[in-house]
Every structure is written in structure tokens, then in C-alpha cells.
Amino acid sequence: MSNRAQKNEEQPAIRVGFFELFRFATCKDILMMVVGCFCALLHGSAQPLMLLVFGLLTDAFIEYDIELQELTDDRKECVNNTIQWKKNYTAAYNLSALLNIEYEMMMFAFYYVGIGAAVFLLGYLQISLWVTAAAKQIQLIRKLYFSKVMRMEIGWFDCTSVGELNTRMSDDINKINDAIADQVSIFVQRFTTFVCGFCVGFVKGWKLTLVIIAASPLIGVGAGLMALFVAKLTGMELQAYAKAGSVADEVLSSIRTVAAFGGEKKEVQRYDRNLISAQRWGIRKGLIVGFFTGFMWLVIFLCYGLAFWYGSSLVVDTKEYTPGTLLQVFFGVLIAAMNLGQASPCLEAFASGRGAATIIFETIDREPEIDCLSEAGYKLDRVKGDIEFHNVTFHYPSRPEVKILDQLNVVVKSGETTAFVGSSGAGKSTAIQLIQRFYDPKEGMVTLDGHDIRGLNIQWLRSLIGIVEQEPVLFATTIAENIRYGRPGVSDKDIITAAKEANAYKFIMDLPQKFDTLVGEGGGQMSGGQKQRIAIARALVRNPRILLLDMATSALDNESEAVVQEALDKVRMGRTTISIAHRLSTIKNADVIVGFEHGRAIERGKHNELLERKGVYFTLVTLQSQGDKALNEKARQSRSSPLGMTKSTLLQSKCFERLMHNAFLEEDDELVEPASAARILKYNTPEWPYMLFGTIAAAINGGINPAYSLLFSQILATFSVQDPVAQRKEINSICLFFVVVGIVSFFTQVLQGYAFSKSGELLTRRLRRLGFQAMLGQEVGWFDDHRNSPGALTTRLATDASQVQGATGSQIGMIVNSLANIGVALIISFYFSWKLSLLVLCFLPFIALSSGFQASMLTGFAKQDKEAMEAAGQISGEALNNIRTIAGLGKEKTFVEMYEAQLDAPYQAALKKANVYGACYSFSQCIIFLTNSASYRFGGYLVQKEGLHFSLVFRVISAIVTSGTALGRASSYTPDYAKAKISAARFFQLLDRVPQISVYNDKGEKWDNFQGNIDFIDCKFTYPSRPDIQVLNGLNVSVKPGQTLAFVGSSGCGKSTSVQLLERFYDPNHGKVLIDGHDTTRINVSFLRSKIGVVSQEPILFDCSIAENIKYGDNLREISLNEVISAAKKAQLHDFVMALPEKYNTNVGSQGSQLSRGQKQRIAIARAIIRDPKILLLDEATSALDTESEKTVQEALDKARQGRTCIVIAHRLSTIQNSDIIAVMSRGIVIEKGAHDQLMALKGAYYKLVTTGAPIS
């Protein structure tokens, strides 16, 4: 085996060959697997062996019955167990000895028990050996994989998402486990049974075997066609649903537009229209599946009929076979076919295991480009700390088309503090990552003291560098341990010194457990400022030559910022420091300031020099200093309110964010209680007639299985009939009966398939519609949560809704089917022999259990494995999520060791599982042998002592045994059911969620003479998805009816946010928005939105005609084409539309892709005009246009503004000079407001912006 593995390894295969899966097996493992295979071979031959015994047993029964009939002949008598002619006929000579049936059955019972015991032992060995061997190999693969991943360069992590790596570590390695564990031995066992079964058939009776084989391709063809059709129809169904899905996707992606124009009800109808065709295909699929299942049953019953008809003629007419041989051949072929079918899922497991192994083994074999654990590279004796970038060009491996650094030249002198400033995306952080050698530049080089850092030892280089990031990462352990991560083997004294230097000592000593306080997952228990200071202490403990501060204070509030800043100023002395910051207060006192733009360093000098240059630095300073001033004013006013509040809220929001984050990382399935079946059925009530017919059909289908045992035993009974004519007649009628049963089963299967698919598809469509409606009814903030992204929601509509079917129709069918099966079987068996039935019934639970166990075995022990892997998963998850921090600290080895320590528990669990699992499996395999042994022994007793007819013994046993396996099968359908209940629960959660801002209810104030008077009173607001960033800080501004208000300010200062509050997409956390003196939170939502028209920066159009897009402006009434045209004229759009070939019926393409930006903008304006709104919101409506289209659009806007209250957000000052009020915003508050001339006279922020012509954003 190992030779083969090596041979395979030499050929470089893209896919992993099957034997290559075992490349990590030791000799001991290989020995275990070989022994396991041998056991599986023996185990596989047990079932065909049992057939030989069964044939002999049948012959014995029939012989006994024939002799009994001879005795009924009054010319014969029995003397000393010998049948003789009576004295007066002829001289006495012995005819034959009367069989002692009880003794014979005793022998057979022993055979059965013997085979059963062997099966138990072999089954146990086969499974436990393979599972144990696999567990050892998997543990090794896990270790190798994780340690290799931790050695990869950072660029590799950019191209591979952490989520993907986590799934690979759990799911993919589990798939390999499935492929090299018990499945192999089960496959060997079933394949052996298949071969042996056919051997029995051919050896005992090749004629009959050939006849049966001749008919079997029909079944294969049926199964093949069914698979083909189902695949095709599923494709069609998905395609049909894709159209509805794209509607859903389009609507959910542009939910703000839909909400603003009140198009929810319209969209739900549009979605529902597209669901009809998907529903049709689903019903067809159900019909086809029913048809082919029915067809297969029909063929099987016809096959039975044929086999018994031909077989009985071989037994009766030509006397070639005994009845026993007939059964051996028949069941031999049957068992062989069944086992072949059962062996195929194993092949699937092998295939998916090989697929999973491809990526994992490739990673294990991959050599990292920057190997952090390599010993190579030299270490300098003395480090001065001069860093220089020479013509560095760089792009991230994950986005090769975007140049981040472009011929960058920067010199950082040792012992100086150099600050990097510039807009985001200019390449500041990238430069820092190159110094740490997370990446290598594409061209040029980075040098330390004149040495190219690529020649230095990585661990040594990184040990020189201390880094404090914007969002510092702490590990889930104590504060002391976190600081100790900075340098291994550091003393407690050093830790305390570092903490003091970082201004952290005081707050740590205030905590109850001081340095032993746990910081929580990701440092979630600490506030931002505390985390930052612990991170600084961690950087200082290294005693670094080079200190990198990447926006180390940006996420803090003013007070903690001051503390952290002080700490940083203390530690910068005498070290080479590079600081990146957005807040200028933190950079003013740097020795050198370097301004970045588009990946180049374009200016360099001291604070004052750069201000005179009026470049990048100047623009940044102007905007910020204004904002800071105003904020400090506010802070002074609100000093009376204790500042302690912000700290705790920050802390809470951080915790909240972490919680959200973690909740998302784990699947969101676990949080849901499965829904009750009753509630699911309630949604399905209108389809009750279909369900009724389906249930009746299912009941008939269930009764067919036991009917088969009736016919089967009846055939055996005919073999002991003495009169040839009667015998022939009886055989023919039974074979005919098989045909009838087949035809009945065909029709009921079709009926069941159709009825349940019809009811299920109608349910799916209903749920999809309700779900979509519920989604559109949620407040806009709900969509900001990344779990409710359009993609996630559309998949939820697509999959969850269709999975719910599994809990209604087909599930009911399954249950009814099994109940009918068992019911009919029990009635038959008790009617014919209650004593024997009671005995067999004792075994029924075990048979059902074993059958169910085998089914659940396939779905497997995945859950227990998952739990055992959890601790290891936490470590790997933490390591992969924070790979940059770990690499910066050079702690890869530590994490690999921690991970390996955690792998022991899952390994022990797997060994325990091997034994339990082996025992269960072998028990489930041998139970049927024991059942037969007991039942036939007792049957023999009843036949002899109570004159029970032998065919009834077979009838009772086969009826109950088949019903037992059916029971087990039914229980195996439950995973589907459980999944359905969880899907349903997720769905109901959505339906039951009460949105904070509801569109669908009619409550709330409405009034007639709507004026459009707007007041923002002290509005504070944070987005629910980013609770730690305060967007509005107390906004105060008001607009009178008919006035135009313009917001100006840099991006992120809260301009668009204020507009969204007015639309009531969100409600402010504090303060009020008043319209005509009414609080917006009390106004009816749809009434409010119907009075507001919006034109946004990137207007969103729907995939329909121009006229329909304009009509979308008012969804409450039907709009005539004349109105559309007049609106278009006002928007300067009419002439352009008339020039198009299809005029107003021109399709705009998805998201309006067929039109230019200016055209889209004007359609959006027409759409806003047709509403005839009292309030018009223009959100940067002309910013994306070139000058010419801007003029046209601007004219259109000026027309539209007449007589309406208007709020404009603009980036170009030319567009707002004629506004009534201009409000300059910064950091979420208004810093100055008034008309253009007043503001110019003020010579404040607005004046600076206008005169320097600096861009605002």
C-alpha cells in the first residue's frame, strides 16, 4: 500500500489520487487499515452465506409439509417416525423417515447465531481499526496544516479570507476524515457482498440469475432518467426563480430608493408575479419524481412476478431447482443489487475527500514567499535606526491592478519622529507594513542602516520594531500576559515599568484583579483608551529601536486621547519613530512631516513650512482646526454633564460590536429555536385537499410493502401443493397479483408526488412573498447589519423558504407511509399467528434502531467532532484573525504550540468514538441474524406442535422485518425535517420582527396644509452598525418653507446623515427633528415620505422603461403619460427622450446602465418632480457630472426648487452660492451658518474654503 502511495506521489496530480490521501500514515496505521479491510471482506461475505442457510431451511420446511400431506392420505400411517403403507395393502417397506422439524430448526438457529456472532466481531474490528487509524492521520494533517498556514506571508492572507481558512480547518479536514475512515471499510464490505451475492446466484442457478439481470437495466434506466430529469428541472426551477431573485436583489440593494418613494407594495407584487413560473417548475419536478419512483416500483414488482413465474417453472416442471435454490438465487441477486446501490454514497465521500485534500495538501506543500520562521538572513550587531525607501513601487497581491505606492522615496532619520499625513488610501499604512516586511516591494527597496531588509533575518528584524495600531489587538488572556507577548521571558518588573511608561499602570491597579484581569475576547472588556495603552506597553516591553504608530489615537475620545498622547510623547525619545495620524494635534510637534498623495511623498518639512505651501497638509489643517474649535466649544458647554458617560458608552458599544462580530462568526443557525410544526402547517392550510389526497396515496404506498410478504409466503406455500394443475393455477394467479400491485403502486406514487409537490410549492411561494414583504417593511438601519446584506437576504428567500417544504407535505407523506406500513404488517402477522408475531415484535425496536442508526451514521458524528474541535478552533480563529499582530510580535510559534496542545482532546474523543461507533455498527449489522435465529426456531416448534402452516412462519417474519427497516428509514428522513424547522424558525423570526420604523401601519399623524417647515434640534446620532462612531454631535439648524438650505463640509461630517434622519430612515438617538412643529417620530411614515422628493448623488434606477422609472415617483396613484411628459420637460429631459428610438419605452438597463450619468440624474429629477413634493432633498446631485451636463441638470434643479423647501448637499461651491442658508459642518455639528455674503464677511472656515478653492471632500 505504501509503495503505491509513493508511486502516486511522484506523478504530479492536480487532483489528489485516492491513495495519496494516506500519505501521512505510519506503518502502524497501514497495518491497522489492512487488518480492517480483511475484516470487512469477511463481514461482506456473511449475508450471502446466510442465504445458503436460508435455502436449506426453506427446503426443510417444504419437505416436512409434503410429508404431512402424505400422512393425510388414509392409506398410510406413521410408525416409529416412519411413514408406511398400511398393513393390508402390501408388505411393509419403509417409504421415508418423517422429518424432526424442531431438531432441524435448532441446527439452523445455531448457524444463524454463529454467523451473527462473527458479524458482530468483524464489524466492530473493521470500523474501530479504520476510525482509529484515520484519527491519527487527521491529527497530523491538522498540525501540519496549521503550522504551515501560520508561516505564510501576509500577502497570502489577503488573497485567502480568514473565514475560508477556518472552514478549511474544520469542514475540509473533516471531509478528508470521512474519506479515509469508516467509509472505506463499509465500501469494501458492501462491494464484497455485491460480488458474493452474484456468485451465489450464478453458482446456484445461472438461468434464473440471467433472467433477473436482464430485467434490472430497466431499474437502472429509471433511476438514471430520474436523476437526469430532476437535475434538469431543478435547473429550470432555479432559473425561473433567478428572475424573481434578481428582482429581490435589485429591490434590496436599492432599499433606500424604494423606501423614499414608498414603492414597497408595488415591489412585493412584482416579486410575486415572478414566483409563479418557479412554482410551476417545482410542481413538475414533484410529478416527475413521483412518476419515476412509481415506474421503478412497477418494474420491481414485475421483476418479482417474472422471477417467481420462471423460477417456479424451473422448480415444478423441470425439477432443476429446489424451492430453496429459487430463493437463494432470487435473494442473492437482490442483495447484490441493493449493496451496490448502498456502496455508491461512499464513492461520493471519497470524491469530496479528494477534492478537499487538494487545497489542503497544496497549502502544506507550498513554500511561503516570506518565511517568518526561517533561520536565514543575517543580524546586525549595532542598529542605528535609519530607514529609507528607494523608489518603492508596490501593489497588494489581492488587488494587483491598483498601485498603492508609486516610486516612493522617503528618508526617516534615526532618533527623529517622522509623521506621515495624507488622505486615506495614499499609502501611509502600506509604507509601515513594508518596514515590518509583511510584504516585499515590487520594485525598489527598503533599507535599514543601508542594508536591504530582505537580507535580514525576519524574526530579528521584527523584534526591533514596536508597533501600535489604530485598532490594537489584544489576545483573550490577562493584561500581564498580553504585555508579555511583546518579549518572551520578560520579568514582572519590566512589565510594570512598561505599564508606567504607557500611562497604564494607574488604571490597571484600580482594577480588582490588577495585572491578572482578563481582557476578554479581542480585548472586548477594555475601553478603547485602555486597550491602546496596554498595546503601547506591549510595544515598549520589546525596548524597540523603531516605533511605528499607526493612527494610534484616532479611535479615542478627547480625554483618553490626551492621556495616550502623553504616553506616546514620553516613549518617543531617542527612538526612530514613524507616526501616522489624521488628527493634526498629534503631529504638530513631529520633527519631520511627510505629505503623501497617490502613493508618493509630495511634500516634506516642519508644520509651519508646510502650511505656507498650501498643499495637502494645508487643506487637512484648515478643515480640522475649525471642527476642533467648534467641538471644544460644545464640550465646554456640556462639561456640566459628566464625561464619565462617554467612557462607559464607548465600552458598551465596543463590547456590543464584539458581540455582534462573534455572533456573526458562529453560524446564525444556533440562535434559533426550531419552529413548531403546527405553525408551519397553518401557512399550508389552503392546500388541504392536495394534502388529503397525498396522504391517502401515501397510506396505500405504505401498505404495499407488507402485501409483498403476503405474496412471497404464498408462493412458498404453492411448492408443497401436490396437485400439478392446481399448483400451476395458483402460481399464475400470484404472479398476476404481483403485476396488479405494481400498477397500483405506480399510480399512488405519482399521485403522492404530485399532490405534495403542489402543496409544498404553493407554501414556498406564499412564504417567499410574506418574507419579502416583511423584509421591505424593516427600517433602513436593519439593512446596515452585514447579516442582512442584499446577498444574504436573497439567499434566505431562495433557500430557507424552499426548505420549509420539508416540514409539511413530503414529511407528512413519509410519516403516513411508515405508519401504514407498520400497521398493515402488524395486522397481517397477528391475524395469521399471534404467538410468533409477539416473539418477532420483541426484536422490532432493535431492527428499527439499527436501520435508523445506519441512516444517521451517514450524516455522522459531525456534531460531536465539532464540539471537541471548538477549543482548538478558538485558538486558530484568534490567530488567523489577528495574523498581522502576531507576525508583528513574532509569536507564530507560540500559537502553533497552543493549537497542537488543544488537538489532543479531539483525538482522544475520536478514539473513544471509534469503539462506541464500532460496537453500534456491528450490533446493527448482526441483529437481523439473531432475529432470524430465534424466529425460525420458534416457528419450527409451532409448525410441529401446533400444526401452523409453514408459509405463515415466513409470512409473519418477513412482514415484521420489512416494516422494521421501513421504520428505520423513516427515522432517517428526520434531518431534513429538523433543517426545515430551523429554516422555518428563521423565517418566522423575520415575519415576527417588529420594525422600529414601520411602513405598513397606518398609525401616526397626518395633516392637510403641509408647509415644509424643518427644524433639527440638538440631534445626536450614531449608525446602529457602527455604535462607536458619533456621526452627529448635536445638530441645530432650521429651514422655513420655500427656503433652500445648503450643507457644506468634508466627507463623514454628517451631511447625508441629516438628510436620512429627515426621511426617517433612522431616528436620532437624542434630540428631535420637527416638521411643521410635529415630531417626526410621531408622523405616519408613508405620509411623511410622500411629501419628500429625493435626488441622490448616484441615482438608482430600476430595470424597466424610462416612463416606468419616472412613474415610480408616486406609487399611490396611477399616473398618465401626459404627467410624465410634463415632469420630463421640467427636468430638461423630454428632448433627449424623444430622440431615442423607443422614446419613453426605452429600457434603462439594470441600475440604469444604458444611460449616461447626466441622463440618469435628470430621470431622477423628473421622478422627484412627479411626486410634487413639499420638501426636496438634493444629495450631491451634480457632483458626479461633467461641466456641461452639470449646467443642464443645475438648471433643471433650479426650476424644481421653486416654491419648495429644499436641502442641498454639495461638493462644488458654485452650486450653493445662491442658497438662502449655508451651513458649514464639521464632525457632526454646524460650525457656521448664514448666507454666502455673511459667511464671506466672517472670514471663517467657509471663507477659507472659497478663497483657496481647496476641495471640500
UniProtKB/TrEMBL annotation:
Transmembrane segments: 30-57, 109-133, 184-203, 209-231, 287-309, 688-711, 731-756, 812-832, 838-861
GO cellular component annotations of the record: apical plasma membrane; mitochondrial inner membrane; recycling endosome membrane
Keywords of the record: ATP-binding, Cell membrane, Endosome, Glycoprotein, Membrane, Nucleotide-binding, Phosphoprotein, Repeat, Translocase, Transmembrane, Transmembrane helix, Transport, Ubl conjugation
CDD domains: ABC_6TM_Pgp_ABCB1_D1_like, ABC_6TM_Pgp_ABCB1_D2_like, ABC_MTABC3_MDL1_MDL2
Entry keyword annotation includes Hydrolase: no
Subunit and partners: Interacts with HAX1. Interacts with the adapter protein complex 2 (AP-2) throught AP2A2 or AP2A1; this interaction regulates cell membrane expression of ABCB11 through its internalization in a clathrin-dependent manner and its subsequent degradation.
Protein name: Bile salt export pump
Organism: Neolamprologus brichardi
